[in-house]
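Hi team,

Below is the intake form for DUF2798 domain-containing protein from Nitrobacter winogradskyi. Please confirm the fields before the structure is written into the shared record.

FORM ID: S-0412
PROTEIN: DUF2798 domain-containing protein
ORGANISM: Nitrobacter winogradskyi
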Amino acid sequence: MLGIPRRYCHFVFGVIQAGLTSFIAAAIASISLWGSGRFLYNWLISWVVSWAIMLPAVLFAAPVIQFIAVHLTRDDCAG
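The structure came back. Fields below:
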């Protein structure tokens, strides 16, 4: 456990979510290089660039998306 204060949970979530999303997308985009021996290099470079671009996008978009999702749904506990 890193012991990061809970008030930074949004940022930790964003780092993990952007990292995982860009990790998968870069692998899919690089799959055509599998047989050439350049897959790993291309995938890692693509992943780092994608993560650097996606991280700010996720951090800024997540609160807006959550706000919209809350307003498009209802509380099932209300009778």
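SUMMARY LINE: Residues 39-72 form the longest helix (34 residues).

Thanks, M.
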